[in-house]
């Protein structure tokens, strides 16, 4: 089932679908705002065995910084640990520089400051199950100023819970700064090349699940999460081989 919605960004129309993940953003998000479904100073989300506290997210950026694509040699053959400090607690990724070197090299560059105080602007709860982040403006239309191709996309379209992969538009070379975290096993289309898997969540999945559990105020199940969550800062360290 497709949602026949389009948005023109710099003259380029971006088609959104519940069976695909676009880096162009959802029209159900709050344009120019924080991308939040319900503003609050703090909130407590109930998760089995845990109690999660979220602070009020900071205001998003007015525009996304424009950068140059870094060399994939920065990450080639290496693995990394990335800690995302969020307004709801820390989420830790393992990054596959050995499997997706260009994607991870881009992540290393963007982690320095690009994602500081950036909302996770999109939650999908029908058909696909992901939390999408990586746009400093929180609108879903922010771009790094560069694009690159697909890496390490599964041929069978399987994206298990905990997978971290790149969001993109219809163009296979439109990977940039937006990525998604899969919170429930998801099947994604492979006809246009699939979506680059570049890591997995190794800690903090309870936070993602708790945010997902609150859902979205969108009737389509595709919009800003009801519980706002923002990336405050990202710290990356290389995992040294024994």
UniProtKB/TrEMBL annotation:
GO-annotated molecular function: peptidyl-prolyl cis-trans isomerase activity
Alphabetical list of Pfam families matching this protein: Pro_isomerase
Signal peptide start-end: 1-29
Gene3D superfamilies: Cyclophilin-like
Matches recorded under InterPro entries: Cyclophilin-like_dom_sf, Cyclophilin-type_PPIase_dom, Cyclophilin_A-like
Sequence ranges assigned to domain PPIase cyclophilin-type in this UniProt record: 89-236
Keywords: Isomerase, Rotamase, Signal
Catalysed reactions, semicolon-separated: [protein]-peptidylproline (omega=180) = [protein]-peptidylproline (omega=0)
Record-listed E.C. numbers: 5.2.1.8
Protein family: Belongs to the cyclophilin-type PPIase family.
PANTHER family: PEPTIDYL-PROLYL CIS-TRANS ISOMERASE B-RELATED, PEPTIDYL-PROLYL CIS-TRANS ISOMERASE-RELATED
Functional description taken from the UniProt entry: PPIases accelerate the folding of proteins. It catalyzes the cis-trans isomerization of proline imidic peptide bonds in oligopeptides.
Protein name in the entry: Peptidyl-prolyl cis-trans isomerase
Organism: Flexivirga oryzae
């Amino acid at each position: 089932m497709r949602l026949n919605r389009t948005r023109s960004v710099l003259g380029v129309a971006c088609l959104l679908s519940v069976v695909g993940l676009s880096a162009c953003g959802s029209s159900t998000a709050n344009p120019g705002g924080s991308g939040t479904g319900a503003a609050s100073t703090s909130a407590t989300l109930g998760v089995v065995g845990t109690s999660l506290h979220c602070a009020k997210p900071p205001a998003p950026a007015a525009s996304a910084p424009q950068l140059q694509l870094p060399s994939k040699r920065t990450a080639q053959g290496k693995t990394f640990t990335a800690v995302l400090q969020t307004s709801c607690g820390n989420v830790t990724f393992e990054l596959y520089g050995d499997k997706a070197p260009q994607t991870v090299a881009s992540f290393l560059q963007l982690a320095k400051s690009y994602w500081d105080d950036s909302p996770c602007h999109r939650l999908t709860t029908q058909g696909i199950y992901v939390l999408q982040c990586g746009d400093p403006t929180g609108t879903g239309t922010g771009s790094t100023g560069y694009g690159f191709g697909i890496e390490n996309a599964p041929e069978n379209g399987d994206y298990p819970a905990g997978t971290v992969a790149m969001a993109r538009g219809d163009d296979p070379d439109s990977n940039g700064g937006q990525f998604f975290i899969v919170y429930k096993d998801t099947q994604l289309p492979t006809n246009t090349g699939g979506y680059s898997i570049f890591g997995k969540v190794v800690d903090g999945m309870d936070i993602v699940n708790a945010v997902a559990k609150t859902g979205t105020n969108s009737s389509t199940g595709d919009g800003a999460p009801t519980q706002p969550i923002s990336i405050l800062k990202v710290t990356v360290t290389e995992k040294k081989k024994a």
